[in-house]
Amino acid sequence: MTSVSSVSEGSLPKITELQLTGNESEEAHRLTLACARRHPETDTSDFLRFARTLACRLPMRILSFLEEFRQAEDLHAAVIHGHHIATETLEPTPSTWQNGRTPGSRPYSWLLTLLASWLGDVIGWQSQQSGRLVTDVVPSPGMEQSLVSSCSDRELSWHTEDAWSESRADYVGLFCLRNPSHVGTTLSFLDTRDLPPKILTVLQEARFVFARDESHTDEEPPGETRRSPNVPVLTGNPRCPQLRADRDFMAERPGDAVARNALRMLITQLDSNLTDIALAPGDLLFVNNRIAVHGRRPFTPRYDGADRWLKRVNIVRDLWRTQVDSTEENNRILV
Compositional bias (Basic and acidic residues) at which positions (predicted)? Predict the structure, then answer.
């Protein structure tokens, strides 16, 4: 049924991979073209209401692969290789996300959304890229040294997507349209066997704060700040805890030297477990945002229309819980 080419173990993240056949790629592409002809955008409730039903028309081997990934709580990521990219109709890489919704890239937004729907519901933020559910990751002039995904000259540090929020995604999907320099997407995880029990206990206590990164550009609603209250880094089953971490936007609560030491040890391990995934055009990466962190290696943008270009979605497994958790945040788009 499912073709898994590799599952890494030990100090490396566990990644499962599927290589599509030519027929499977063409079948999926035809379905997305049909969706693009019928619906103006992926954000429409008309499309999203039936996205999972439409996804049933995808090749069975793809759906089986995604279902196994969804049920395997210890897998950090899944990669599907070999989706069709119509390079002759794909426009030059835009210099800003505002220009990312191009006619030639639209079918891949539908494809990403259909595949994501097999893992859960696609969500977006009112405060990020104007509330678009499928967002664009491109290098932007003037942002080369920033701390968000539009940076290039500096490394995008590993992070849990939207670690500051209790309503953060369970999965993050990244679909590669271009990557001429083979820039690596980084992935890491926590192996609890490599940290002392006392340190793990500290990381499970509400002694840490997270800041909201600059990709959320609008002003906070009244009464809100860009920082979380004191929260734990690890939650859930102590033997296989869920992780929230962000190298650039997390810290211990002020004056807590014990928490500072625990955070330092966590950072050291996540750094040492970091591995690279160089996505090729047509590759789709799903990151398990509950147990893995991801980032990106630095590169030099050329701004010639051929730079790296990814489509991105956030996915939650329980939309009802997300709606409840987000009532105090006031900046979530739910579909």
Answer: 213-227
pLDDT digits (tens, 9 = 90+) for 122-178: 999 988 898 999 999 999 999 999 999 999 999 999 999 999 999 999 999 999 999
Annotated binding-site ranges for 2-oxoglutarate? 186, 308, 312
Residue 44, token pair as written in the block = 């429409």
Token pair, residue 36, equals 């693009």
* DSSP code string of 217-240: -SPPPTT--SB--SB-SEES-TTS
Annotate 260-324 with three-state secondary structure.
Answer: HHHHHHHHHHHHHCCEEEECCCCCEEEEECCCEEEEECCCCCCCCCCCCEEEEEEEECCHHHHHH
Tens of pLDDT, residue by residue over 198-222, are: 999 999 999 999 998 877 765 444 4
Instruction: State if pTM tops 0.85.
Output: yes
Q: Is the pLDDT of residue 280 over 90?
A: yes
User: What are the extents of the domains in the chain?
Assistant: 15-191+275-333
Decide if domain 15-191+275-333 falls under CATH 3.60.130.10: yes
Residue type, 98: Q
Residue type, 111: L
Which residue ranges make up the annotated binding site for Fe cation?
159, 161, 294
23 contacts: CB under 8 Å, gap ≥ 6: 59
Q: What are the pLDDT digits (tens) for 53-90?
A: 999 999 999 999 999 999 998 999 999 999 999 999 99
What is d(CA 67, CA 257) in angstroms, rounded to the nearest whole number? 43
Residue 174 CB contacts under 8 Å (≥ 6 apart), including other chains: 137, 185, 279, 284, 285, 286, 287, 310, 311, 312
